[in-house]
Design goal:
Blueprint: E1 15-23, E2 29-31, H1 32-39, H2 54-70, E3 84-90, E4 97-108, E5 113-125, E6 140-144, H3 160-177, E7 179-181, H4 182-194, E8 199-200, E9 207-211, H5 215-228, E10 240-247, H6 250-282, H7 295-319, H8 323-355
Antiparallel strand pairs: 1-9, 1-10, 2-7, 3-4, 4-5, 5-6, 8-9
Helix pairs in contact: 2-3, 6-7, 6-8, 7-8
């Protein structure tokens, strides 16, 4: 393990903590099952990312498929050297169906513009949502070489040429449905770092202060990032976990505290403005019905508030951040959170009232 590579505190070099920066190989990929095997022995099993959503893995599959087609003999009529192949998302009336069109873009010098030719359309019916105790079901994939016209992807039967293309694409869809890329891995690593009582040193994240007490956890994370996770080249990993020691002395404490305080205040400002606009959009205005609030959005904003309140405790305990100043800001956020809960309850009550059947009136 990498414990020896992470500077240890001593009487001559007392360490307050570490400035931690993670950088992952942008082309790295790993399957859901393999990642779980890697992170569980290291104690990070609870940080396994959620399965990739269909719109995301389907677009990744399309991109990989197109790249493969360009290097094969299959698509002579689909992709040629004169045009540039593009993938366009088509918005249809059914939100459970993803539709993409493969088009060729050609430069029309005579008209001083661009012309487009649709070569094929790909349809993907999202799998049904999995309820507790149920096994996940695959989605339905099909494609057609007809550039337009009504097509029901649930019943369409591809011809021989379409079936050959579809088989090739299905391989990539199956692959990316269970595969994480660097974006998911980066969020996982960031979540692991923040679970170590870390303080963000800038609003956008990516740079954290991790207290010295988390040295062993940092060593295990370094093992995961720099050794365990696969590389895009198959050689030495280009992913790194930087951990710069911070001396435990007054000046260092002031600088860390100042950076953490500034980042936290910026997050509070952003959240406060977001909440203000959200509440304003859902307030009852005379002559206008109350706009319903989705439970998902209400829960997301409450979770953000609770996260910042928990961070306040960390900053105060570890860094001596100016608690009184921030505490007043968090109290204002609490009022917004309570107002949001009240509006949500009111919108639910209004929906219940609308669903009540009208009383029958006997006409004599």
């Amino acid at each position: 393990m990498y414990t020896n590579e992470i500077k240890e505190s001593s009487a001559q070099f007392p360490i307050l903590g570490y400035t931690v920066i993670a950088s992952l190989d942008t082309k790295s990929e790993i399957s859901h099952d393999r990642l779980l095997q890697l992170i569980t022995p290291l104690g990070f099993g609870n940080f396994l990312p959620p399965q990739v959503e269909p719109p995301t893995y389907f677009q990744r599959a399309i991109a990989a498929w197109i790249k493969e087609l360009k290097n094969s003999a299959i698509p002579a009529a689909l992709i040629d050297d004169d045009g540039k192949s593009l993938v366009r998302r088509i918005k249809g009336p059914d939100s459970d169906v993803l539709i993409f069109a493969l088009v060729k873009e050609n430069v029309d010098l005579a008209a001083l513009g661009l012309s487009y030719l649709t070569n094929l359309r790909v349809f993907f019916v999202k799998p049904p949502r999995v309820k507790e105790g149920e096994q996940p079901q695959p989605g339905t994939l099909t494609l057609t070489l007809t550039p337009s016209g009504a097509t029901d992807p649930r019943t369409y039967c591809p011809n021989a040429q379409e079936a050959a293309l579809l088989s090739n694409l299905q391989k990539w869809v199956d692959h990316y449905a269970v595969t994480y890329k660097s974006s998911e891995l980066s969020r996982m690593v960031n979540d692991i770092i923040e679970s170590m009582g870390a303080a963000r040193m800038r609003l956008s994240g990516g740079v954290h202060f991790v207290p010295y007490a988390q040295r062993d956890n940092l060593a295990r994370l370094k093992q995961l990032v720099e050794v365990s996770l696969p590389t895009s080249t198959g050689g030495k990993s280009s992913s790194t976990l930087m951990h710069l020691p911070i001396i435990d002395e007054e000046n260092s404490r002031e600088q860390v505290s100042g950076s953490a305080h500034s980042a936290f205040v910026q997050r509070v400002d952003s959240y406060e403005e977001n909440m203000r606009r959200f509440l304003l959009a859902h307030e009852t205005v005379e002559g206008r019905k109350l706009k319903p609030i989705k439970k998902k959005y209400m829960e997301e904003r409450i979770a953000q508030y609770e996260e910042m309140k928990a961070e306040l405790e960390i900053y105060d305990m570890l860094l001596g951040t100016r608690r009184q100043e921030i505490e007043s800001r968090v109290s204002a956020l609490e009022e917004q959170a309570l107002a949001l809960i009240g509006l949500y309850g009111q919108s639910i009550a209004n929906q219940d009232d609308e669903e009540q059947p009208a009383e029958e009136v006997e006409v004599s």
